[in-house]
Amino acid sequence: MKKNISCGELAAFWAVLVLSFGAVYQARADAGLAEQIAKADMGYGEYLAGECMTCHRNQSAGIPNINGLDAEKFVTIMRAYRSKELENKVMQMMAGRLNDEQIISLAAYFSSLSN
Ligand code: HEC
Question: Class for domain 33-112, per CATH?
């Protein structure tokens, strides 16, 4: 009897495809990270930062100051929240809504501030 491809197998196939594509894409993105940060749109970063400042301007509640954070470190941290490697529900949600271009613009902007 002909074996039908199950939904699970199809899903697994797509997961592998998407993950391998993601890995290649990530590797290429990392190679040029410093360059991408240098070319980032600060104005866009400043615009996006408005939402972050509702929390991050207020250090009294144990929220870290992110002004002046090294840009590459900033990108690494945000990607780690996005992939849920770093545990914090709020930041996972915030980072989950941002694409790489937006994270890099934010990194360029916040790293330009004095802390
Ligand atoms: C609702 C409050 C809130 C908002 C909004 C928010 N953050 Fe956060 N953020 C936090 C908290 C709380 C932590 C500390 C989490 C932890 O302990 O892991 C944090 C941690 C961080 C860190 C890690 C700092 C470090 O030194 O480890 C970065 C970077 C960061 N946030 C960036 C952002 C950016 C960029 C935005 C806007 C897109 C944003 N946050 C919006 C609450 C918030």
Answer: mainly alpha
| Domain extents in the chain | 1-31, 33-112
The ranges of the chain with pLDDT < 50 are none
Residue 108, ligand 1, Cβ within 6 A = no
Ligand 1 atom 15 nearest Cα: 88
Buried b (16+ CB within 10 A) or exposed e, 79-107: bebbeeeeeeeebbebbeebebebbbbbb
- Regarding the beta carbon of 103 and ligand 1, being less than 6 Å apart is answered no
pLDDT digits (tens, 9 = 90+) for 78-90: 999 999 999 999 9
Task: State the pTM of this model.
Answer: 0.80
The CB of 66 under 6 Å from ligand 1? The reply is: yes
Determine if ligand 1 sits within 6 Å of the CB of residue 74.
yes
